[in-house]
Amino acid sequence: MVQTEDTSTMADGWREVFERSRLVPPSSHTVRLAAESHLAQSHGFQLSLSRLTAAQPPQSLEMPETEQDLTYQLRATLFDQNHQHFFGRTWKSPPQKMKNSKISFNEVLYFHTSLRLPSTVVVVELVSLSPRPDSSQQALGRGFTVLELFTNRPEAQAADGNRRLNLHHGSPRILLHPQLQDTTDYRSLLKTIDGTHLDCVVKKHPALVSMMHLLPENVLVSGDENIPGLAASPTGDALLRPQLLKTLPFTLNRLTISLQPSLEKFESQLLQLINADCHNTKQPGPEGTQRAVVIQERRLHVGVHNGWCFLDKPQVVVLEPLASGGRGRADSTSKQSTLDSSAPSPLPQILGLRSSLELKMTNHQAMSIVFQLEHVFSAPIGRETMLSATSTSRAAFLQCLRWGIFFPFQQPADWRGEEIQLVLQGGAKSNPYGVMVYSTEMSAKTQSSVPLSAPGTAQLKDTLTFRLSSGLERKASSPKASLRSKQEDVSHERRLPSSPSQGQKLIAAASPPESPQGPKACSAVSNIAHLEMDLQREGDVSASAHSEGDQLEELPFTPVHAPVITLGMNVPSSSSVSSRSSLAHLYSAGFPEIADYSGQVAEVLDPTEPVPFDPQREEADLLQGNLLVFQFLAFTRIPTPGVGPDWPDNIHFTFQFYRFPPVTSQKLKLLKSDKVQQKRCDPLPCVVASINRDGTVNTGSPGLQVQFRVDDGFLRPGEKRWFLRYLALHTMHIDIWDSDSLLLIGSTAIELKYMLRQGKSAVQALHEVEVLTTDYVGDDALLMSASLGQHSASSPMTIRTIVRGRLHIRTGNIGCPVDPTRRRAGDVMLSPSHIITPRQVTSGFRGGSLSSRNILQLNARNTAQAHRLEMDGDHVPLYRHRIRPDSVVPGELNLNEPNGGRRKLDCMAAVRQREAKEGVQAANVTEQTSEAHLSAELLQIQLSEERSRSEGIANMLGQAITTQHLLYASLGSAEYMEFVLKNPFNVPQTVTIHSDDPDLSVITNTDEWRYFKALTQTPTPLEENMFQWEQGAPGPRVYLRPKESIHIPLKYQSFLCDHTMAPQGPSFLPTGKGSQMAKKNQSNIVAAKTIKVTFQADDGKPMAICQVNVEPTPHVVNQTFRLYHPELCFLKKAIRLPPWHDPTVEDPDARSNISVRCSDPNIICQTRMLVPGEPQDVYLKVPGNPSPHIKMFFVMVFTDKWMAAPSQTWQIYVHFLERVDVSCVTGQRTCQSLVLRGRQTVRKVKCFSSHPKEIQVDPEGVFVLPPSAVQELQLKVQLWRAGSRFLYVNAVDMENQRLITAWLLCLNVHQPVLSKAFEVCVPVGGGRGSSKKITYTNPYTSGRTFLLRSDHPDLLQFKEDKFQVSGGESYTIGLRFASSQSPGSVKIHVYVNNLEEKTEETFVVNVNYS
Q1: pLDDT of 1223 over the 90 cut
Q2: Which residue, 214, 355, 703, 1350, is the most exposed by fewest CB within 10 angstroms?
C-alpha cells in the first residue's frame, strides 16, 4: 500500500500555484447579461504593454526618493463599470527602471473571457517600488488608466489596434466612488497627468482556444507563466503558439472511503449537529418533534486539477455503504440514516464505488486528482419556511464533508499496481472546489494529532483508498470502464469519430451541475437525480487490442516544406503602363478590327473598371450566338539579367478556354520596328507575326487571332447559364513559351468578364498584363540537398517574382443571330428543381423486336417500334461466311413468318452454293452431312434467339421503371438531387439502394441532408434516422409503408479527371483561316458518364431505377502553379492558404473547416490546423517521373464542412528534370559535363540554357544525335551573384520542335577571396560620371594576358577589357564609373581573370553616390 502525506507538506509547488491562481469571480448580473447577449463562448485576447512615457517623473510628497533605487511596476486588473466591481486576478509586471523619462516594459498579457460587454475594462496602475530598511519594498501608486476592450455593440469584437492611454492622478480605488457609478467617460471627472501616456496594443488571439481548459476565465497571465499541461516554448512565450502536452488515459477503481471512528458514528454525530441547528432556527410547534433531517445520498466528486482550474468538469458518482470485510452491499436501510436508528451494525461500514472511473491527465508534477465527499440531506418543509406544502414535503440541500488531493506524478511512480491510501481533509482550508467543508472540534483534533506514519494510528484518520492504473495497461480482469471512456478508446483505435448526437448525450450525462457553495435548500427530494451512471457494459476491450510494446510518443512537430508558396504573390497586374508613343506604335501595326454583325466597330470596355453582370439581361439577348475572339497583338520585352536584349525572339502561347480543347498556338515572331528609335527606359512593344512552315514571316497579317463560336448548336440543353457564369467569374491562365528553347518565359491571366455583352451587339477590351515567373534564390545552401537530412530550416530560400515582359491582348465578343427554326426546345433554360419525379407510364409495349439496339432507342414514354431482328455477335455462321448487307434481299429473310425455320435452311444452302461458285471454299460433302451441319447451326441460332428475347423482355421491364435525369457537374462540385420513391405495393417494403458508381451516393447523415436542402432551397420534408445500414448490404436500406412516397437524397461529386497533356512545343497550324478558328471539340478533362441507381425491394427485384446522365462542365481555375523538380524524386511542397472564414457561420470567430482534395489519387494532398489563428498550409507529395515528363493535376480547397463546392481550384504543373549539382565561385568559369543519350531515330538537336550569358553549352549549334548514341555536353558556368540558384538547360529536336531532355542545374555560388578594397565617390545627377585608375602587378615571371570582368557592367566600364603585361611588370587599369540619378552606395567586384576565365585576383570597390 502506498500512503500519501498531508497535502500541505507534499504539494508545496501545487499549493503555490493554487494560491496564486485564486481569483475574484465576476458579478452574477454581468454573467447573466452576457449569457442573454449570446456571449457564452469564451474568446482569447492578447494585450501588449510596450512602454510608458512621462514628461516628468511622477513625484510624491509622502516618500523621498532616489532615482538610482526607485523602480516602477505595472499592475493590471479587470473591472466591471456597471457594478463597480474588480474581478479576476491582479497581474504584476517585473520592476523596471526609468531611463530618459521612459519606462520600457515590453510585456505581453493573455486572457480569455466570455464577458465581451462594453462595461468590461482593464485598469492599469503604475506603481513605484522603493526599498525599505528591512529589505522589503514599499509600493506607492503613481497613476492609473482605463483600457476599454469592447465597443458599444455587444456582438462586436475587441477594439483591435494600437492604443495610447493617458494616465490619471490618484488610485484605481477612485473608480468605486458613487459619483462614478454608471459613468463611462472618466475624462471629465478625473485629472490627467500631463505628458504621461502608456502605449499598448489589444488584439484577438484565437490560438488560446486550444488551451482554454487549462486556464480559468478572466485571468491575466504572461507568456512565461507556469501553466501545467502546456509545453514550454524555446522563445519563452508559451501562449503565443500554445502546444499542449499529450494526455494519457487512467483508470481509477476499487475506491473506498473510511470515516472515523466509524461510518455510523460519523453520520450520527453529523445528523445530531444538523438537527440541532435546524431546531435552533425553527419556531417551536407540536409537529417539530416529528421532523428529522435524514441522509438522502452520498456523492463523490472526482476531477483533474492543474493548480489553476479543473481540466474537465468533475465527475459525480454515488457511493454505497459497504461492509468493510467484504465488497457486499450493506443493509438498504442504511441509505437513509436517521437520528433514531440505534440498531448496531454487525460490521464496521465504509463507503465504496462499485464501478470504475476514467480520467485523462498529462505527465506533469502539478497535475492532481481532487476528491470531494458530499452528502445530500433531506429536510422537512413547514410553514416556517414560508412554502405552501404539506408536512410530508421535504427539501434537499448539499454539504461537503471531506476533500483530498493526490499527485500521481510528483513522486516516483511506485503506486502502479498498488493500493493508494489518501488522507482526507476538513475544516477551514481553501480547496479547489471553493466550498465550505464540514469540521468539528473533535474531528479537527483527530485529524491533526498524530501523523499517518505512526504505527497503530491510521484508524484515527479519514482515508480514501483506491487503485490507479494507466489506460494502456488495463487487463480484461480489471473493473469495467465507463461507457463514455470506452467509446472514446474504441473510436481512437478505429480512427473513426463518434456520432455527434451520441457524444452530446454522453457528455450531458457525465457533466452534472456544480455543487452549491454551502448548505442551502434546493428542489424537492423527488427531483434529485440519481447521478450514478451505468458505468458497466457488456463486453470489454481485451488486452489483445493493445500492442505488446509501448507506443512512441509523438512530439510537436511542424513539417517544413521550403519554400512555401503564398497565394496571390504572383498575380499579374492588368493596368496599362505603356506610354502614348508605345501605344501609337502598337496601333499603327494594322491589326484587324473587331466589328459586330453589321460591320460596326465593337464597343470598347475599360479593363480597369468594374463590369455589371445581369444574367437575365444576357438570357434575354436577341443575339443568342457568341463569337469570342482573342487577339494576341504584341509582347514588350523587359531586360532580364542573364539573357540578351533581343530575348525572346520567337514565342508561342498555351491556354484553354471553357470546354474547348487546350490551345497551343503556332510559332510567332517578335517583330522589332526599325523606324522608331528604341529607348532603354521605355521599350517599344514587339508585334507578333505568324511564321510559315518554310520559316518565312507572314507580315501581311500581324498578330494572332483565335476564335471560339458558342451558339445553340454548341451548347447543350441548360448549359448557357453555366457558360455565362464561367465568363463572369473565370480568369483565363496563359503561358508564354520560348519557341526555340521550349523554356517557359512566364505566365499571365486575363479576366473574362469583359467579354459579357450585356445586351450590346459586340464588345472589346484591350489588356496589357504582366508576364511573371518565379525564381528561387538562397543565401547559404541549396533548397534540395544532395543527401537527405542536410537541409534545414536555417537556410531558407527566397521566392522572387520576376516580370519578364508585358503581353498586349485584345478580347472581344461578337453577337450572332440564330435561326429560330433551328433552335431546340432543350436550349431553353432548364428548371433549377432538384427533385426527380418518376413519370407515370401510360403506354405499353406495342410489339416488334426485342433486340438490344431497339431497347436503347426507346423514348422517354417507354414506347417501342417494330424492327427487323438483327444478327449480333453471337450469330457466328453469318459473320463467319462474310455475307455483305447488300447481298441479302429483304424479301428472302423474313424471319418473323411462321415457317421461318425452313427459310433459314434455304438461305444457308444458298450461301453455300454462292461460296462454291466463287471458289472461296471447295467442300465435297454428302447431302446427309450438309443437312446435319445446317441443323446444328439452326439449333444454335434458336438458342441465341431465346436468350436475346429473355434479355430484351428484362430490358423492356427495366426501361418501364427507369427515370432519366440530366445532370451538369464540374470537378469537385457536389450536385444535390432528391428522387421520389414510391411503394406501389399494398404491403410494406424495405428497399435497398445501390449505385453502380461511387461518385453518386445516398446522403444518410441528417445534418448533411439539412445543409444541402438549405443550400439548394429545396422545400421538401426531412426525416431523422431514415436509413439503416446492414453488414454486407450493397447500400443503405429504407422502410416504406404501403403506397407511401418518400424523398431519397442523392449527391454526385467527383474529384477525378483525365490528366492527358499535349506534347510540349508549338503547333504547326497553317496560316489563314485554319489558324484563326479553334476546333469545337469537347475537352477531355472530365468524361461524361451514365450512372444507374437501383431501388431493390425485399425480393431482390428492382422497384425503381434512376438513370443519371452526367454531362461535364468546365470548372473555374483560380490559380495555376508551375513547379520544377528533379526526376524520379518525390516533390514535397507547401502552399499557404489565406485566412478564409465561412460567411455562413454566425460566429465570426468560428474557424472554417478547411479540407483539400486532389484529382490524382496517386498524389498525397492534405492540410491540418497546426495552431489556431496561424496560417494554414496545403501539403503536396507528388511521385516523380522521368525527364522531361510534365504532370498536371488539380487541387480543390473546401471551406465548408460538407464540401459542397470548392472555394479555390488550383491547376498545378510539375516539370521533372534531370538534376545536376554545381558548386562554383562568382566571376570564375566552371565546367560541367552532361550526357545526352539518343533515342530510336536520328535527331537534329540543339541545346538552350535559360540564362545564355551565364551558362554556355558546347556544342553551341545544331548537331546530329544518332540512335542509341551518347553525346557529351560541356557546360561553361560563370555567375556574378553569390547564393543558391536554379537554372535550366533544354535539349530540343529542331525538326519536330519537341523537347528531348531537360536539366535542372542546382547552383551553389560562393563569394570570392578579396585581394584589395577601394572606395570612390561619384556625384549624383546627369554628369559624366567619374574616372579612376587601379594598378595591377603581374605576379608571374613571364608575360601573361588577362581579362577584366565586373559584376555591374552597367555601372562600371573598363578602358580595356583585355590587357597584356610582362612578368613582374605593372599595368594601370582604367575604370569609368557611370553616374546615378539617386544617392546611395553599391559594392562592385572587379575580377582579373586569365584566358581560361579563372580568377587571378578580385578587387572590391565601394562606390558612394552623393
Answers
A1: yes
A2: 355
